[in-house]
Amino acid sequence: METVVQNDMYLMIKRAVSEAIKEERMNLYFSLLPEVDDEEMKDIISQQGGPQKNNEYEDLNSLIDAEN
Questions:
Q1: pTM for the whole thing?
Q2: For residues 46 and 66, what is the distance between their CA atoms, to the nearest angstrom?
Q3: How far apart are CA 21 and CA 27, in angstroms?
Q4: In contact, 9 and 17? CB cutoff 8 Å
Q5: What is the reported pLDDT for 64?
Q6: Cα–Cα distance between 1 and 7 in angstroms, integer?
Q7: Fewest CB within a 10 Å sphere: which of 2, 10, 15, 18?
Q8: Is the pLDDT score of 1 beyond 70?
Q9: Who contacts 36 (Cβ-Cβ below 8 Å, separation ≥6)?
């Protein structure tokens, strides 16, 4: 019984530490990104073009509906 409790505690602590590290990594990542004001963003869009809609997946719902 004691080993089960120890294993559960180990997994809970491991998950909590992993989540904390991930959160801190994201905070560091966002703190290193420079902020862009509206005027600078307009300049970037005029030079590079706006964001393109890029679907990384294909909607397969129509295929599933056709089979039923």
A1: 0.49
A2: 43
A3: 10
A4: no
A5: 76
A6: 10
A7: 2
A8: no
A9: 44
- What per-residue confidence (pLDDT) applies to 47? 92
How far apart are the C-alpha atoms of 45 and 38, rounded to whole Å? Answer: 11
The answer to whether the CB of 7 falls within 8 A of the CB of 15 is: no
> What pLDDT score does 20 carry?
96
What does the block give as tokens for 51?
């964001």
- Give the position of tokens 């703190």: 31
Please identify which residue in the block is written with the tokens 């963003």: 41
Q: In the structure encoding, which two tokens stand for residue 3, read together?
A: 């080993």
Show the 3-state SS of the chain: CHHHHHHHHHHHHHHHHHHHHHHHHHHHHHHHCCCCCHHHHHHHHHHHCCCCCCCCCCCCHHHHHHHC
